[in-house]
What does this fold into?
Amino acid sequence: MDNIGKTILSGGNQLINEDHPAFNDKEYIKRRNYIADLGYKYSLKDKNIPNIDYTNDEKNTWKICYDKLINLYPKIACKD
It folds into this structure.
């Protein structure tokens, strides 16, 4: 049970290939690996969930994604 999601998080740089806009962005890759590493090291036995201080750029990016996705859910997502 404690390995849920660790296969996805361990994808490492394999998830970023030449077609990815940040392929050559060392700071982006460093930040992405830092966040993924926190999730990968987390255990259900830990008393505290790691806190990530997301940057304003990260928050704004996910706001754009959320706003677009929330409008798509009623059209394309199943009830489950």
